[in-house]
Amino acid sequence: MLAWPSWLGLAVVFGGPLLLVTPAQRLLGPPGRLRTQALEQLAMWVLLAAVLYIVLALEGRPLASIGLRPFHWTSLAWGIALAAVLMRVVAPIGSWMIGRLRLAGFETGLAAFATLPLWLKLVAVLGGGVVEETLFRGFAIERIAEASGSYLLAAALTLVFFALLHLPMWGWGPVLSFSISGAVLTAFYIWRQDLLANMVAHTIVDAVGLIVVPSRARRG
Description:
Elements: H1 4-19, H2 34-58, H3 73-100, H4 107-114, H5 118-148, H6 151-164, H7 167-170, H8 172-192, H9 195-219
Helix pairs in contact: 1-2, 1-5, 2-5, 3-8, 3-9, 5-6, 5-9, 6-8, 8-9
């Protein structure tokens, strides 16, 4: 049975990001304005800080309880290997499925992301790798599994939420792709319980897909 701090953490994990994709997000300012987008990224890091505070101070647990252990080179190696699988195997499968289902691709989302200054792109990429993995793959999976006794249920709930969270900006095609890559990240986390490796993989994939490849395409 989860204690109240854990339920509070789950409320932060699911409620915070949800507010940022609803009309409540307009409290940060007009959508599309640089200041608003910067505040959105800041809000995600605030959510991360809140969850870490809950784990350490309110739950009184170590960060290992959400899969975050002291740095070891194996985590870096696993993260790089996982990133390679995601980019070379999983991403092409997602693109093929998007094409087969005749769904819109990543063009709209990439066009919007391309308008951001480089510093904000870097913050967003790190936010994807560090914040999203901690909230969804680390805290949410571990606490839901603890409450339900099922990692499968925890994986399903967090995966659906994680994928749909990207719908407003990216559309259904990318959501399908994010569901597949998210499933791989989720399965890897449950297998290895190595949150740092997940962070490394997610950050590399986002950096290549959102910054490196579009930059090369524009120069070409």
